[in-house]
Amino acid sequence: MAVGSGAFVPIRPAGGATDALTPTLGALLVEFLAFYGTVFDPKAHAVLGSYGLALGAPPPGCGFVARAQVGMLSAGGARLPKGAHAPHELGHDVFAMDPVVSVDPVDLHNNPAKSCYRIGQIQKLFARAAVAAVAAADAEAMAVRRGDEPRPARVLAAILAAEA
């Protein structure tokens, strides 16, 4: 999802210039804020680590799946007694009451985000921070084009000043 013109003052790695296809840290931050602020739906999606490819998880780097698939993933890592049924076989969602699901890569039955009851407010803040970052980056790019000295701290200040 593109959130703006991508006019960030680039933050380049210490080794020198990057190619045009390499995203800047600023662009990655805006994409993160925009995705989790506007696209991610905690009722429909779950956050995953880089595991469980054989069980239906996305490839490393994707980080989320449909929440309905989480039961299969957690059941795949379970050690159930003989004759017992996995929760998904019984039609039970082990994380049904949790506002956000972030599956623990060490214990597939644990959800470290289970007490995140203000996810809606967090998402609003992320969305506003993404918009503020893009507006500040556009203003900063215009200032640099006019010959002003780059001051990327103004973009960070705009992100931090965003209110939910």
Supply the number of structural domains.
1
The coarse overall form would be: elongated
What share of the residues does DSSP label as strand, in percent?
under 5%
- Please describe the biggest sheet, giving its number of strands, its sense, and whether it closes into a barrel: 2 strands, antiparallel
The helix-and-strand class reads mainly alpha
Q: Looking across the biggest beta sheet, what order are the strands in?
A: 1-2
**Overall radius of gyration:** 20 Å
**Whole-number average pLDDT?**
75
Q: Give the helix level as a range of percent.
A: 25-40%
Question: Separation of termini?
Answer: 21 Å
Strand runs, count:
2
Note the run of SSEs as H and E.
HEEHHH
Report low-confidence residues grouped into runs of 5 or more.
1-13, 77-85
Question: Count the helices. How many?
Answer: 4
